[in-house]
Prior knowledge:
2 copies of one chain form a homodimer. The termini of chain A are close together. The longest helix of chain A has 19 residues, at 312-330. The first copy, chain A, contains 13 helices and 13 strands. Chain A has helices at residues 10-21, 23-30, 54-64, 75-80, 99-110, 120-136, 153-160, 175-185, 190-199, 208-211, 214-227, 247-255, 312-330, and strands spanning 2-6, 35-40, 44-52, 70-71, 86-89, 114-117, 141-142, 166-172, 238-239, 258-267, 271-279, 290-297, 301-308. Chain A has a 7-stranded mixed beta sheet, with helices on both faces. In chain A, strands 9-11-10-8-12-13 form a 6-stranded mixed beta sheet. Chain A is α/β, with parallel strands linked by helices. Chain A folds into 2 domains: 2-150 and 312-330, Rossmann fold; 157-308, Dihydrodipicolinate Reductase, domain 2 (2-Layer Sandwich).
Amino acid sequence: MRVLISGFGTVGQGFAEVVASRQDFFRERYGKEVRIVCAMDSKTYASDPDGLDPLELVSVKNTAGRVGRNTYEDSVKVMDSVDYDLLVEVSPTDVLTGGVGLTNIVHALECGKDVITVNKGPLALKFPELIGLARKNRCKFRFEGSVGGAMPIINLCHENLMGERIKSIRGIFNGTCNYILSKMDSGQPFEQALREAQQMGYAESDPANDIEGYDAACKVVILANSVFGRNVTFSDVNVTGISSITSEAVALAAANNMVIRLIGEVSDSKLEVSPRLIPKGHPLGISGTLNAAQILSDLAGPIAITGRGAGRKETASAILSDLIAIMDARK
Amino acid sequence: MRVLISGFGTVGQGFAEVVASRQDFFRERYGKEVRIVCAMDSKTYASDPDGLDPLELVSVKNTAGRVGRNTYEDSVKVMDSVDYDLLVEVSPTDVLTGGVGLTNIVHALECGKDVITVNKGPLALKFPELIGLARKNRCKFRFEGSVGGAMPIINLCHENLMGERIKSIRGIFNGTCNYILSKMDSGQPFEQALREAQQMGYAESDPANDIEGYDAACKVVILANSVFGRNVTFSDVNVTGISSITSEAVALAAANNMVIRLIGEVSDSKLEVSPRLIPKGHPLGISGTLNAAQILSDLAGPIAITGRGAGRKETASAILSDLIAIMDARK
């Protein structure tokens, strides 16, 4: 399996480290290693048809600030210069245009390559087109890490619950908001909880993407398209963030044995992100930076899953699960 | 796919209903229906090589008190008289001897048939033997519903998290205990909460199997053997139940923002069921009759799942997920 990694920030590096740590597993299960034949960051690339050393790529990136010696202008030309089976697209998310990630995914699928991505931009903007392209060219297209990081929500719906009729998914899809709301549960006012989230590195200096619910809305769009077969985009989501939640509202909820959580909800007819009252002890009443989702289906009833929504290893673990599924299908 | 159902109580009937409700799905995915060629209860059976009507089986059982007109003494002779591909073993659990369920599973595997069971007795007593028999005869042997009902814990570990190194699983594996402890959170004393659980039909009139932790211990044994590759049995588990938990202990926990939950824990070195303090807002701090499990692995970190631990449709949904996996593998 020859892999081209596009994007060599935290997630790309984490994935390279995971590949290095799992070569024994790949050899045992598939009789061969996973070869990283090319790694691109935003300006440079390294390539070797015999495979690059994953840990050396990480080391070079961290010491030299670039993944390779070769510079490029056009990522498509780099992709065309390499023989690969699978694109792992983990460049920075651009939810306005899809960015270079969208270009790379489209090009790989058009060339008949399998694709794994965690890049929410292309998925939130162009899901039906990308799925259509993958079907037409008989490529695998997987994106477990794009919703909830390490939490295996998409594969759970598609695989474990394949025989179920899924009625709705409600979830906590933004760990930063959940951290802030959890701090408000212990009496902190919103502004102070937000500052603490920023100091902890959970929230950006411009926190709008998190606290206004836009990030959660992207995940809701991905679930609506991939699990419910809908054809929706970011602008179809009714979004309310958490910036107007007062300490008084949180205290009133607590007095009724409830907490306030920012919940994304998807069903055949619903597409919404908004603060909701959740009973304490409910699977969606969790505290801290975890993500969570509760899937309601006709036979199993409610099944909830929680996991870390972000992180280097954690997001790489989601890519690994997609990689294993693709390699199993090729066996 | 020709199925023999052994056991036609709540779960067997629920499975028959699920088969009836999913024939469109089976036709679309596999180009054929699932045929129930034989159904046995404890004394009678019905069989038809062309397939029995699943809903009529349920109706006959509920009106006549028996699933078929034919009586039998020896279940193995009935099995030998039928051409089938898959045994669905859902007869009553017997954790002392394994009961007729163990006999039926062993016989089916020896005859090269695939087996799905939710019967904890054979699994908690004879796991290594059964897995060995399945491997030797190249049969699929699946048992998702035996731990946590609808909660897909086993398939999650084996499939979604296949590339992870799982370090431990901690979970709530008995909904009755969790119901009682949740009621104690709202101030009820133990005895009253237990009576309420009995009135609601959650606890048996002899509640020892639940409240002394024996049922949870069976699930811990199944996870230890199936996920951690250990070779343990019921008597290897350190078990403490919930009958000595006082209202004072629950109140003291609450004053520290904690709840008391009966937690089963499995790892390479641990095998335990005992009451533990869990922080409020933790994924294992849930209330009510739900089951929950938190899997700790090297890349994904903690992933938790919750679902209904029992119920007619819910347990049948776990059997359905195993059935789909087996039919996919045969495609």
